[in-house]
Amino acid sequence: MDVITTTNFKKDMFNILNRVTTENKTIEITLKSKNGFNDSVVIIPKREYQRIQEELHLERTGTLGYVINAMEHSTDADFEEV
Fold first, then answer.
1. What gap in Å lies between CA 21 and CA 18, rounded to an integer?
2. 2-10: which pairs have CB atoms within 8 A and are 24 or more residues apart?
3. HEC string for the chain
4. Phi, then psi, of 38 in degrees rounded to 5
5. Per-residue model confidence as pLDDT tens digits over 7-54
6. What confidence tens digit (pLDDT) does each residue in 49-80 have?
7. This prediction's pTM
8. What φ, ψ does residue 80 adopt, rounded to 5°?
9. Cβ count within 10 A of residue 29
10. Spatial separation of the C-alpha atoms in residues 61 and 20, rounded to whole Å
11. CA distance 26 to 46
């Protein structure tokens, strides 16, 4: 993950956002905090965000665990060649 400052992000916003989408990059933008901590914001491609949301939904509904269990205990007989 590339890490940049807000100043550099402002200078080259279009190219940075373009890299996020075309190269499937994740970018962290660091922010100075009044508390002395370095906070940050992460920019990810929309398709990555959607993938994360889908995985969280499958986990919350129990579907992900069911599928993983089925995959771990599958045999060749469980599949039909198409």
1. 5
2. 2/26, 2/27, 2/28, 3/27, 3/28, 3/29, 3/30, 3/40, 4/28, 4/29, 4/30, 5/29, 5/30, 6/30, 6/31
3. CEEEEHHHHHHCHHHHHHHHHHCCCCEEEEEECCCCCEEEEEECCHHHHHHHHHHHHHHHHCHHHHHHHHHHCCCHHHCCCC
4. -90, 105
5. 999 999 999 999 999 999 999 999 887 776 678 999 999 999 999 999
6. 999 999 999 999 999 888 888 889 888 887 78
7. 0.69
8. -115, 130
9. 19
10. 30
11. 11
Distance CA 54, CA 50 (A): 6
Q: Please tell me the total number of residues recorded for the chain in this structure.
A: 82
Gyration radius (Cα) of the chain, Å: 20
What residue has token string 């916003």?
Answer: 13
> What pLDDT is recorded for position 37?
65
